[in-house]
# Entry
Amino acid sequence: MILPDIDRVTALIREVAAAEILPRFRSLGDGDIREKGPGDLVTVADEAAERVLTARLPDLLPGSLVIGEEAVSADPSVMERLSDDRPVWIVDPVDGTINFANGRDRFGTIVALARGGRTIAGWIVHPVQGRAFTAVAGEGTWADGERIRIPAPPTRPEEMRGLLSVYSHTPESRERMEASRARFALTDTFLASAFDYPAILTGERHFVNYRRTLPWDHAAGILMVTEAGGAAARPDRAPYTLTGTTEGILVVAGADIWETVRETLFGDG
# Structure
């Protein structure tokens, strides 16, 4: 498996965030924010950071392609690059755009590297907090350069702290998820996968359930969690794939509690 220098990729993400994202944080002007769809925001920081990352990431792995969230928004056919035999960078320039646009510091940049439809490396960088999480398939997960494993989670549902993503749920599925609050210590997600996944990695939370599973939001984080001892699968128990169309993903802090969380959340055997 040919990989770029992991630290060079981290350094590039930090550099782009410092140049294109942080100067615009809490400084967005009129016209710097727009809606791509209902409740789906994009800012000039998202667009600028993606342009630079798209131009420079292939230099770190010659012959590689790039899929950016904003590029796909403009041209959905860009997603077809996931089926290419060449390595593909998957970029979310500002994950947590709602937070960013509202002056909240829970946002990050997510980059994954895939080949043949499989995630082989991932990066999550928090520009404000300065943290960086990385993972390599078959080699492990690191937080700021230190190898990490997810702390052992509790086994009793009432002791588990979970994240519930109600964003994009249908009214029916939202009602079902909300009912789970009585069975778990549930809180809403951070509105940023870049913060949800690290919360699992550090043991702050024990699971997260999403309905929408776009690859730029989840490819890197799922790799990090599974490489650090956690587990992730679709609610129907099918594995998560970058090109899959099945909705939903349940990510937990330990493989031995995945079924317990699933049964308690969905209760349908």
The longest strand covers residues 88-95. The chain has eight helices and 14 strands. The chain has two domains: 6-148, 157-266. The mean pLDDT is 91.
